[in-house]
Amino acid sequence: MTQSNPDQYEWLREIHGQDALEWVRARNAETEDWLVTDDYRALQQSLLEALQAPDRIPEVIKRGGHYYNFWRDAEHPKGLWRRTTWEAYLQDEPDWDILLDVDALAAAEGIDWVYAGVILLRPAEGDPYRRALVRLSPDGGDAVAVREYDVVTRAFVPSSEGGFNLPVAKTRVSWAGPDALYVATDFGPAADGTPSVTKSSYARTVRRVERGSTLAEAPEVFAVDQNHVLTAVHHDSTPGFERDIAVDAIDFHHWRTHVRAGDRWQPVAVPTDVSVAFHREWILFAPRTDAQIGDTEVPAGGLALAPAEAFLAGDAEVTVAFAPTANTALESYTFTRSALLITVLRDVASAVLVARPEDGWTTREVLSPASLESISVAAVDDEDPVAGEDLWLSTSGFLTPPTLQRARLDGDRLTEIVTAKRAPERFDPAGLRVEQHFARSADGTRVPYFQVGPSELTLDGANPTLMNGYGGFQVSLTPSYSPAVGRAWLTRTNDAGRTGVYVIANIRGGGEYGPAWHRAALRENRHRAYEDFAAIAADLAERGVCDREHLAATGRSNGGLLMGNMITGYGHLFGAISCGVPLLDMRHYTRLSAGHSWIAEYGDPDVPEDWAFVRGFSPQHRIAELDDDAVIPASLIWTATSDDRVGPVQARTMYAALTDRGFENVWYHEDLVGGHAGASDHEQAARMLTTSYAFLWRRVSGA
To answer: Cβ distance 175 to 181 under 8 Å?
Structure first.
């Protein structure tokens, strides 16, 4: 085999270079010519049908007297921003008031806009919501235009009338008041040449932009070091608790939070690995490592509170509301008008606790759903005098479609429970069951995984099995309902009459057991995430679920890095790999797109001591270490040209390096739009999912 040099592919690093894009189109054609069959088209249509089904649950957020939603369907692939009333929402077919038709906007302006969110301006007391900042991406990437919109006139506010209109960039913005914004974006270099963006490609400075003024005229209000990740300033407009908050993201896991005190920014006096948040009169702390906050020791993964005004004045009366145990982790929290609701994971299944200040923030369990299911809890509107104790309850599982309920918190009980929406089944769960198993990793750690498949599973190693993993950035993979997995894998049958088995791997690097589970696979310990994944693959084989020829694996982004390491380090375990929007070239990742922001997660390859261990999990560089007779899994590497977070370069050069070494059965696909999500509308999402699932099924089903 020919040895490859990872630095020889400079021409592929020109993301929009003519030669590079011609190469992309040629690779796409090869993949599509081989993969797209009648079965592929039928699956794509089935997944599209599920993705744009009209009876999906329209998720809403309450603002004033309305419930706002963004919706895509077959007639509106780019989507509608709309709102309704509570009474109408309870109907099977609510009467929606259309605020913005993105398809019509894109057609009128000749720009392929992708909706990226809305920020509504809190009106004066007694007035209705009217003004909003609409975020629009031209290609599905992270860079967006921000434009002011009037929901009464159903029109953007013209710049000639003082309307805010920010150009496309990686912008973070907050209303600073009815006539001003806090804008963190690329303002161009300063007079001395200092850039206004960090090495991570995000904003380094924040300016306060008054209505009618330009970005260039706006004064700088906050700035951070160029080596830090980013900064942003947010105005908390909660009546009676208004405050300006600035964040200096030092790296991906360390922050410094500041609160404006007169004409200066007061730093919150806590260690930088403590996440800080404010809610009304409270300040909250969530440390990644054991932290001394005031006179209180707050454990890693815990949640603590203090009166904000007193704490900022130096009176550090801090109370721990949640302390994790060996098998529990903090997942999220929300406030009603009178109480704090904390969602925790217990061996990766959800439970909800309630705590109140008058009880010293002592927690009591208020909700524990069925085993191996997930629940999310969110306040409906804690400021509403009538609905202030109301909660959204959303439950789902691998075989249980989502249900959205609304309930009222009364003491430690949920009352007045109303089922607002219930999604129908998108695939037949008959004969399927969910199990949880634990594998032993190389260092003896017990690693959980979920297995979904036939309840009467023949344990002879011949079941088409798909593993999914991530293992990074303290992201937890929890039970959830996926029509795509159900239709493309769990209910699909091969020629031998076997249906698919689906596995979620809860490996280290994730947050399933809190920050310690994450830290266990950071930087020089990254190999533990890969050993965990491999241990689960081996456990599946030992239990007779599947052998190598019947085992596929998939992962995206950091999960794509996981897949790259499975290809180059654990190929003996897998028959097929789908590696999506991946990090793969760890020698250059800090110089590509937003890669510099992840140094705290992986290490800095420009520091020799770091490169010594980073090289060990750089798939691009592990290729050279493979023997000439090495066998790697059949591999599909896929990405998007418009991905401005990871970027397409690493996927391109990985494929080129593998094929230059002579490895066969490696395939490549790159969508020109879609951003890091890989898709910007349902049709593109269906195609992306079908490409991945069809490739894997074809390789490990025995078809």
So the answer is: yes
Q: What is the pTM of this model?
A: 0.96
Nearest-angstrom CA–CA distance, 79 and 484: 21
Strand partners, 137: 114
Count of Cβ atoms closer than 10 Å to residue 261 Cβ: 11
Q: Look at the alpha carbons of 382, 383, 389, 394 in this order and tell me if their dihedral is positive or negative.
A: negative
The secondary structure of residue 486, as a DSSP letter, is: I
Place of tokens 């219930």: 422
Instruction: Measure the CA–CA gap between 186 and 203, rounded to whole angstroms.
Output: 6
What confidence tier does 629 reach under pLDDT thresholds 50, 70, 90? confident
| Main-chain phi, psi angles of 693, to 5 degrees | -65, -40
Known active-site residue 557: yes
Contact 527, 496 (CB under 8 A): no
* CA dihedral for 268, 271, 272, 273, sign (positive or negative): negative
First-to-last C-alpha distance (Å) of the chain: 30
Which residue of the set 550, 676, 682, 701 is catalytic?
676
Give me the pLDDT at residue 678, please.
77
Q: Give the separation between CA 491 and CA 639, rounded to whole angstroms.
A: 27
Angle at 490 between CA 487 and CA 494, to 5 degrees: 95
Of 268, 275, 267, nearest to 294 by C-alpha is 268
Q: How far is residue 535's CA from residue 517's CA, in Å, rounded to a whole number?
A: 16
Average pLDDT over residues 20-24: 97
Asked if 187 contacts 204 with a C-beta cutoff of 8 angstroms, the reply is: no
Give yes or no: 441 in active site. no
Give the neighbor-by-neighbor strand order of the sheet with 205-210: 172-177, 180-184, 205-210, 220-223
Which residues share a beta bridge with 666? Answer: 635
CB 503 within 8 A of CB 536: yes
Rounded Cα distance between 342 and 244, Å, is 26
User: Read out DSSP for 630-663?
Assistant: ----EEEEEEETT--SS-SHHHHHHHHHHHHTT-
271 vs 284: CA distance, rounded Å: 13
- Of the candidates 401, 311, 412, 282, the one whose C-alpha atom is nearest the C-alpha of residue 354 is 412
Is residue 433 classed exposed, middle or buried when 0-12, 13-18 and 19+ CB atoms within 10 A define those classes?
A: middle
Structure tokens at 19: 């030669």
Query: Residues 405-454: pLDDT tens digits?
Result: 999 999 989 999 999 999 999 999 999 999 999 999 999 999 999 999 99
Contact criterion met (CB below 8 Å) for 287 and 635: no
Question: Residues 512-549, buried b or exposed e (16+ Cβ, 10 A)?
Answer: bbbbbbbbbbbebebbbbbbbbbbbbbbbbeeebbbbe
Phi, psi of 248 (to 5 degrees): -110, 105
Query: Looking at 557, 597, 642, 701, which residue is catalytic?
Result: 557
Interacting residues of 213 by C-beta distance below 8 A, sequence separation 6+: none
Query: For the chain, how many residues are written?
Result: 703
Q: How many CB atoms neighbour CB 424 within 10 A?
A: 8
